[in-house]
Amino acid sequence: MAQALVMYLQQQKPLSQQLIIYCGVTHHMFNNPQPFSSSLKPTSIQVATGDANSNLTALAICTVKIISDNKHLTFKNCLYVPRLKYNLIRLLELFKEELTVNQKNDNFNLMSQGKEILRGTIINKLMISTYSVPTSLLTSSDKNPWHNRLGHPGPAVLKLLGIEVDKNNFLICKTSKSHK
Questions:
Q1: Given the DSSP bridges, would you call strands 126-129 and 41-47 parallel, antiparallel or unpaired?
Q2: For the Retrovirus-related Pol polyprotein from transposon TNT 1-94-like beta-barrel domain, which residue ranges apply (predicted)?
């Protein structure tokens, strides 16, 4: 698996918040519903990995929008896989006909059809670029504001995933925190 890594897009240090551009996946896969820009469509797709003991299931399909170096990127038909360690972006979906990688010292840029897609720095043979979620995708609610933190699925997402929610006691938060 490590040999197929091409680069990763880093937002912060936690592994769950990094995007890895990977040539060995069939779909874009995210472990956090935060960057999803459209409604999650429930599904149940088994995700095959190189580990026979791994049991990963995609629970939904969605479109994801992020910003990298002031460029808006949209990834369609992404799988929501909550137990996935990293967010994976399928390399072959980044370009239409050709991909050119330019390197100068410790800097790089990716070009497709004469347009720059991404740029960043090279550290330990990995190409690193930052990303963020467009602020237009962020929402707020006056109900349970303590629960609406980064990485916490709200009642609407939990309901869509078929998880019953007691609005006064978010057991899912306590359960998630006990496993991290």
A1: unpaired
A2: 24-96
